[in-house]
């Protein structure tokens, strides 16, 4: 995962960005992280931005994040989709394959 160090504006202006929003003590977030890391390992590519929601409460409020964990998909600077149910790795991959460029 790509650590969320760049400015929020920089990431929001990316062509496509997928942000994994979590908090440190969230058990469900740890399970979701494992699923996302499995996708990254399988594709041999860092795909997701890693955001600790505790550090960016204004971002969560501005973008109406309803719960944690959240996988936020940004396309052309706009929030296109928010995923809250991390059901399985195949489920996530099927949802995300339209946004992931599989080439290295």
TrEMBL record:
Biological source species: Terrihalobacillus insolitus
InterPro entries in UniProt: Thioredoxin-like_sf, Thioredoxin_domain
Coiled coil: none
Thioredoxin domain boundaries: 4-83
Annotated Pfam families: Thioredoxin (PF00085)
The protein's name: Thioredoxin family protein
């Amino acid at each position: 995962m790509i650590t969320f160090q760049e400015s929020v504006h920089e990431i929001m202006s990316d062509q496509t960005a997928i942000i994994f929003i979590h908090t440190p003590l969230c058990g469900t977030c740890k399970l979701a992280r494992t699923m996302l890391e499995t996708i990254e390992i399988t594709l041999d590519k860092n795909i997701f931005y890693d955001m600790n929601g505790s550090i960016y409460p204004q971002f969560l409020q501005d973008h109406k994040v309803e719960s944690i964990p959240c996988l936020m998909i940004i396309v052309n600077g706009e929030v296109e989709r928010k995923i809250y149910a991390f059901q399985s790795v195949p489920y996530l991959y099927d949802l995300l394959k339209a946004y992931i460029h599989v080439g290295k």
